[in-house]
Amino acid sequence: DLSHNVILYLEDITVSFDGFRALNQLSLAIDAGELRCIIGPNGAGKTTMMDVITGKTRPDSGKAFFGQTIDLTRLTEPQIAHAGIGRKFQKPTIFEQHTAFENLELAMKADKRVRRTLFAQLFDDDRDRIAAVLTQIRLDREADRPAGLLSHGQKQWLEIGMLLMQEPKLLLLDEPVAGMTDDETERTAELFVSLAGKHSLVVVEHDMAFVEALGGKVTVLCEGSVLAEGDLAEVQEDPRVIEVYLGR
Ligand code: ADP
């Protein structure tokens, strides 16, 4: 059932570590432009799933396709990034001594498709692109501040901005609002909602208020496979989901 609109398609993915199945015949389909949340108890396999999508972990069996034709199980991590999958980890990897603007500039120049050295002059349209992303991530007023002086939330947004400079089709975000204030969390939800449509987003998250604010479909992972899928309200009423969360 590879429908035309699917950007990410996993089928029967199994990953074992010393005989332990971190993923057990996991199947998942994400539509182009979708904003999907992945929830589930610790050890459910959320991180391992992200690792399979980005090529960090090779599945023992199963299919993983990006769009209709790109077989992720045959590509290296850099090839997958180049194909248009961007991943944001929890720990920011921004350059703290450089300004917010310079961080985005570096991200742009690091993009293989741009083919420009780090010392090359910026063109006007490069500046416009960086300015547009700074506005998108609400850092337009912080453009010239060293990234190290930004708040925790602003650093996270800057890192998302660095991903956006490479124009990924699919963004993978691992607990993006961990440690953020309520206000930052709300603004992050607004940012993600605004990115959906043009980008597809897969968000692993524990913060249910944030998941609710995102408003997309929710997939519940448990013991390496999909336990439930639907609106947050729907999955929260599912007796199997309640059991998994209350049983811990
Ligand atoms: P989650 O992100 O949902 O908390 P993980 O994907 O990190 O779950 O882990 C799923 C299971 O696989 C856990 O029981 C974890 O201990 C195990 N696991 C993950 N990575 C490894 C590894 N490299 N070696 C051994 N076991 C691992």
UniProtKB/TrEMBL annotation:
Keywords assigned by UniProt, alphabetized: ATP-binding, Nucleotide-binding, Transport
Keyword Secreted listed: no
Protein's UniProt keywords contain Kinase: no
All copies of domain ABC transporter, residue ranges: 8-248
Gene3D superfamilies on file: P-loop containing nucleotide triphosphate hydrolases
Pfam family, one: BCA_ABC_TP_C
Gene Ontology MF terms in the entry: ATP binding
NCBIfam families the UniProt entry points to: urea_trans_UrtD
PANTHER family linked: CONSERVED COMPONENT OF ABC TRANSPORTER FOR NATURAL AMINO ACIDS-RELATED (PTHR45772), HIGH-AFFINITY BRANCHED-CHAIN AMINO ACID TRANSPORT ATP-BINDING PROTEIN (PTHR45772:SF8)
Name under which the protein is recorded: Urea ABC transporter ATP-binding protein UrtD
UniProt gene name: urtD
